[in-house]
Structures are given as structure tokens and as C-alpha cells.
Amino acid sequence: MSKLPVPSGGGDAIIPSGSGKAIAQSGNEAGGHIAGGNVLASAGDLNNIEFSGQVILPQPRAETQLNRLYRKLREEAAEDQELTAYIDQLQIFTRTVEDETVVGLDGKFSAADRLDELDMAKAMKEMIYSELRKNMFSRTFQTIYATLMGKVYEEFQIWVRPAVAKGASREDIDKLVSTHVVKPVVAELETCSEYNEAATPTVRGMVYFLTGNCHLVWC
Q1: Is 73 a member of any domain?
Q2: CB 111, CB 105: distance < 8 Å
Q3: Quick one: 99 and 201 in the same domain?
Q4: Residue 131 shares a structural domain with residue 181
Q5: What is the rounded CA–CA span in Å between residue 45 and residue 154?
Q6: How many domains does the chain divide into?
Q7: Whether residues 90 and 24 fall in one domain
Q8: Residue 168 lies in a domain
Q9: Using an 8 Å Cβ cutoff, are 142 and 82 in contact?
Q10: Which of 25, 102, 159, 192 could form a disulfide with 67 if both were Cys (CB 3.0 to 4.6 A apart)?
Q11: What is the pLDDT of residues 201-212, one digit of tens each?
């Protein structure tokens, strides 16, 4: 890019703008941007801009459903709660499936040759059960967990169960669970500004909670 000539002894320097028009800049001093046209800047730059045109700021990201729910949960934390049982959407997952020949997390993992994972899986499952019991009076919390468990169940049924039915190896099944079940739900939680917990153990715990209640099949 060639340098623009500046008249000797002071005066105006003619600086081309983005539209091809010339704008005269005379005697200006600034520690940041000086603009005669549009300036694209973040909110933190505004104190350093002198402008005669339009400042274009980044658009705020739309609030997600989970973020709204977690914000509502925080707002209602000090209020009296009236629920005495789980809402219908959550009862689907908290109940144990009937007529199962292999029941419980122990039975499921034993049948799937995953007993080496059982201790950690049981700890994560109990963590979820404890959270549900602690927050059973909050409709918002129950809605959050019903939403998350619904996502976990849906992705498992779509990606993992067909592979299990075809006799896929343990390694392949683990990859499917991680890639298509755990990571997507974790990513959604981590983009939720109102969520302040460790996302991966929560989602893994839901996988094992649903397994223990016979909603997910591993073999």
C-alpha cells in the first residue's frame, strides 16, 4: 500500500474511505479509531473511537432454552416450592422399565462386560439421583433434567442402540457414546451462561442413571 502525501507545514491529509469518497481529516489526535465511515468494533473499543459515521456492534447471541431455565432456577431459589412429586416429563425417566430380564446398573454392566467401569458409573448415577432428590420441589429444575435426559436418551437410541444390536465392539460403542451422546449435550450445557457445574460428569451420570432404570441397552 502506498503512503499518502501529507502537505508540508501542516494542513489536511486526504484519506480514502471504504466507499471511494475522500474525507478530510485535519488536526485529529486519538489513541484509538478515527472514522469517517463505518467502524466495526467490539463494545470495549467504544471509548477510543471518534466517528462521523456508523458504529457496527456485534449482535448479542439469542438466549437458549437451557439458559432461560437455569436463570429462572436461580431466580426462584429463594421462593417457596409447592411440588411434591416429579413432573410427568421427568417421571418417564425416573421410573424403572418393567419386564426387563436384566435389571439395574450392575446387571446391565455385568451383561455388557463392563464391570471395570461399574464403580465410577454408580458414583455418577448416585450424583444425579441426589440432585433430583434435593431439587424435587422445583418445577424448573425438573424441567431442566427432563430436557437433558430426553436429549441423552434420544441420541443414544439413534446412534448407539443400532450399533449394540449389530454386535459392535466395546471400543466402537464407547466412541459413539462419547461423540454423539455426551459431547453434544455437554457442549450445550457449557454454552449456558447460567450453568456453573461440571458438565461432563452430569451428562455421564444421566447416561448411567438411565441405564440403571433400564432405559438404555448396552448389550
Answers
A1: yes
A2: no
A3: yes
A4: yes
A5: 44
A6: 2
A7: no
A8: yes
A9: no
A10: 192
A11: 999 999 999 999
Q: Which residues contact 188 (CB under 8 A, 6 or more apart)?
A: 64, 66, 151
As beta bridge partners, residue 155 has none
Number of H helices, E strands in the chain: 9, 6
DSSP state of 9: T
Task: Tell me which amino acid residue 155 is.
Answer: E
Q: State the CB neighbour count (10 A cutoff) for residue 150.
A: 15
pTM (2 d.p.): 0.65
Number of other residues whose CB lies within 10 A of the CB of residue 24: 10
Angle between helices 183-190 and 139-155 (to 10 degrees): 150
**pLDDT tens, residue by residue, 177-219:** 999 999 999 999 998 888 888 999 999 999 999 999 999 999 9
Give bridge partners of residue 24 from the DSSP assignment. Answer: 14
Give domain status of residue 217, yes or no. Answer: no
Q: Three-class SS of residue 6?
A: coil
Q: Give the domain extent around 169.
A: 65-212
Per-residue pLDDT of 130-164, as tens digits, reads 999 888 888 888 889 999 999 999 999 999 999 99
C-alpha neighbours within 13 Å on the C-beta side of residue 130: 8
Find the length of the chain. 219
Query: Residues 44, 188, 178, 131: is their CA dihedral positive or negative?
Result: positive
Question: What's the grid cell of residue 61?
Answer: 447471541
- Give, as one character, the DSSP assignment of residue 46: G
Q: Residue 188: which of 178, 174, 203 has the closest Cα?
A: 203
User: What b/e string do you get for 97-116 counting C-beta neighbours within 10 Å, with b at 16 or more?
Assistant: eeeeeeeebeebbeebebee
